[in-house]
Design a protein that fits this description.
about 500 residues, alpha/beta, Aldehyde Dehydrogenase, Chain A, domain 1, Aldehyde Dehydrogenase, Chain A, domain 2, 7-stranded mixed sheet, 6-stranded mixed sheet
């Protein structure tokens, strides 16, 4: 019988009251492998209520004890990284080695959160006025929620909950219903690490669960990663309900290639950045901007590299790229490739006809390179989220920068060049949050923050790093005096000033 994936509430599996459920597919075979239970409003309420009770004690746990739990969780995730990666591969489709890399990047945030005693250190000023001292510290918010996408079912949640929990909050995770198993494995490992019941909870679901979290008065803050329309919706509705919201949206990431770049190096890096994980990364390069004479040679080199990529099931150790997440995603990507050709672009490498022997029903789209794309074309305007690289032409660095700045997204961007002057002009002139110089996927380390500009971010705070700590806590400032009764003077009716 097909297994059913349930929620995790209060330290263990919870079937829930809702009878709704959704299929979980194996993208490599096109075969359903499980059902996942979809939460109703009552199920979300139970998770929040359980987390609220747990917050009363967890928020008072010492930093030393929290750190011990985090270290234990880190060791357990590291020991089980292969099992987590295989679960991701089976439900998302990415190759196991790529999934293991995802787990590693999540672990780096856990390691960052293990330093929470230092990260939560406050300030102290002695004798700011006669006999008066001033100090500050940060306190947790309460119950916080994470709503995360299908493309990184382990890493993106791990950008959120280690920092939130280390700061003393309790957490309700609503992962994508398309690949829910990684979240359940992480929940089990939290329990084994000694995290008290109710501090970390998982509710699976769709819009019903999302809206229930946004509207629940017991949820203090929401972190989201996904498409721009949903990010904007969650930010608007969440802030209207009085919550803190950090909502990371979509992307159209560009990479400029200048004539002075090492074109063989650039082509190899572009192919990996565009087609790794079948292009289902918010930091994937989906548009290459070839400047001047770099264009023809670059297109030929990238197409040659892309044609050599070994496409197959994620569990096959020889595969370099797997399928896309669903049959609907495959159809949408294929349609956009077709409209590119119809609107005047040249398809230099077409992945629509790819068939993987033995996996004919899988959701495979081969690496695709489309040349002479213009900003008016659908293949450029839309976030494809698939293995498609569009090549746009420009005559100068300035023109390329203006092209990027005209795009509504501002997530990540890169430049390939041997000119320090050009790189500096690029990094200062481009209106994008994360920039790579001869680095195609500039994802910052855990001790820096992750987040874009413009329609790629709604809210004031990025994810993880010091910004994550600030998002999941609020400041408290104390002004104190301990007067000696025999020498104390009366209160003044004048507005207090230092003396």
């Amino acid at each position: 019988m097909t297994r059913t994936i349930t929620h995790w509430i209060g330290g263990g599996p919870y079937s829930g009251k809702s009878e709704r459920r959704s299929p979980v597919w194996n993208p490599a075979t096109g075969v359903q492998q499980a059902w996942v239970t979809l939460a109703g409003v009552a199920d979300v309420d139970r998770a929040v209520q359980v987390a609220s009770v747990a917050f009363e004690s967890w928020s008072q746990v010492s930093l030393s004890r929290r750190t011990r739990v985090l270290f234990a969780f880190r060791e357990l995730v590291n020991a089980h990284r292969r099992a987590i990666a295989e679960a991701i591969s089976d439900e998302h489709g990415k190759v196991v080695s790529d999934a293991e890399g995802e787990v590693q990047r999540g672990l780096e945030v856990v390691e960052f959160a293990c330093g929470i005693p230092t990260l939560l250190k406050g300030d102290y000023s002695d004798q700011v006025s006669s006999g008066v001292d001033l100090f500050s510290f940060r306190e947790p918010l309460g119950v916080v929620a994470g709503i995360t996408p299908f493309n990184f079912p382990a890493m993106v949640p791990m950008w959120m909950f280690p920092v939130a929990i280390a700061c003393g909050n309790t957490f309700v995770l609503k992962p994508s219903e398309r690949d829910p198993s990684a979240s359940m494995l992480l929940a089990q490992l939290w329990s084994e690490a000694g995290l008290p019941d109710g501090v970390f909870n998982v509710v699976h679901g769709d819009k019903t669960a999302v809206d229930a979290l946004i509207d629940h008065p017991g949820v203090a803050a929401i972190s989201f990663v996904g498409s721009t329309p949903i990010a904007k919706y969650i930010h608007t509705r969440g802030t209207a309900a009085g919550k803190r919201v950090q909502a990371l949206g979509g992307a159209k990431n560009h990479a400029i290639v200048l004539p002075d770049a090492d074109r063989a190096f650039a082509a190899e890096q572009l192919a990996a950045a565009a087609f790794g994980s079948a292009g289902e990364r918010c930091m994937a390069i989906s548009a290459a901007v070839a400047v001047g004479e770099a264009a023809e040679e670059l297109v030929e080199a990238v197409a040659r590299k892309a044609a050599a990529i070994r496409v197959g099931p994620g569990r096959d150790g020889t595969s370099e790229m797997g399928p896309v997440i669903t049959s609907e995603a495959k159809a949408r990507i294929s349609r956009l490739i077709g409209t590119g050709a119809e609107q005047g672009a040249r398809v230099a490498l077409d992945g629509r006809t790819l068939v993987v022997p033995g996996h004919e029903k899988g959701f495979f789209v081969g690496p695709t390179v489309i040349d002479r794309v213009t900003p008016e074309m659908d293949v450029y305007r839309e976030e494809i989220f698939g293995p498609v690289l569009s090549v746009v032409r420009a005559q100068s660095v300035r023109e390329a920068i203006d092209l990027i700045n005209a795009n509504p997204y501002g997530n990540g961007t890169s430049i390939f060049t041997s000119s320090g002057a050009a790189a500096r002009e690029f990094q200062r002139g481009v209106k994008v949050g994360m920039i790579g110089i001869n680095v195609p996927i500039p994802v910052p380390m855990a001790y820096y923050s992750f987040g874009g500009w413009k329609d790629s971010l709604f809210g004031e705070r990025h994810i993880h790093g010091a910004e994550g700590v600030a998002f999941y806590t609020r400041a408290k400032v104390i002004t104190s005096r301990w007067p000696q009764l025999e020498t104390s003077s009366g209160a003044s009716y004048v507005f207090p000033t230092a003396s």
